[in-house]
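Input (structure):
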């Protein structure tokens, strides 16, 4: 455990070469969404990991964990799927375009029933990554999110995400592998 913590501290502190959006580098991070209103609570956490296949273009996988409590029902959703991003510019504030799709499985519970549902969620939007050092960016993303559940009408609307990413060079990834072994 000490090795893992030490490795992560080294990465976050920005040792080695600048690791941002160049081909061969990695990104690891996630987003959080929170919505609270009277009798309506929604929380989403989406960790992700990706690889830069070309300069400024990353693709990878994300996991989505959703919890919704609406009046007398609770829904827990697990989703997994691919994402893609394209970054513009080379400054400390970088705009990017983002797209992802999740294949989901939901468990819905009310006071009298319980059911399972499958579906998809997709997102298309744009954001800004603000680098606070060579390796870490805080980001905001806005766009359109659409949800479709099997045998039901789909819904969609404006979506706002707040998150962070850690950008790792291939040398940093190799160092982490060595430290954790």
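Output (sequence):
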């Amino acid at each position: 455990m000490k090795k893992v913590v030490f490795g992560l501290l080294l990465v976050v502190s920005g040792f080695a070469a600048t690791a941002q959006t160049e081909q061969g580098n990695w990104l690891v991070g996630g987003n959080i969404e929170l919505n609270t209103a009277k009798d309506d609570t929604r929380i989403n956490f989406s960790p992700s990991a990706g690889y830069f296949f070309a300069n400024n273009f990353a693709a990878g996988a994300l996991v989505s964990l959703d919890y919704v409590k609406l009046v007398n029902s609770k829904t827990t959703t697990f989703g997994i799927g691919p994402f893609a991003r394209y970054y513009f510019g080379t400054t400390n504030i970088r705009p990017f375009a983002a797209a992802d799709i999740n294949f989901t499985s939901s468990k819905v519970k009310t006071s009298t029933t319980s059911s399972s549902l499958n579906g998809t969620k997709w997102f298309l939007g744009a954001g800004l990554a603000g680098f606070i050092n060579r390796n870490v960016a805080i980001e905001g993303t806005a766009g359109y999110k659409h949800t479709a559940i099997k045998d039901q009408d789909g819904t969609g609307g404006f979506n706002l995400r707040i998150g962070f990413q850690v950008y790792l060079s291939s040398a940093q990834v190799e160092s982490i592998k060595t430290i954790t072994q």
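Notes: The first strand starts at residue 26 and ends at 37. Residues 5 and 180 are 9 Å apart (CA to CA).
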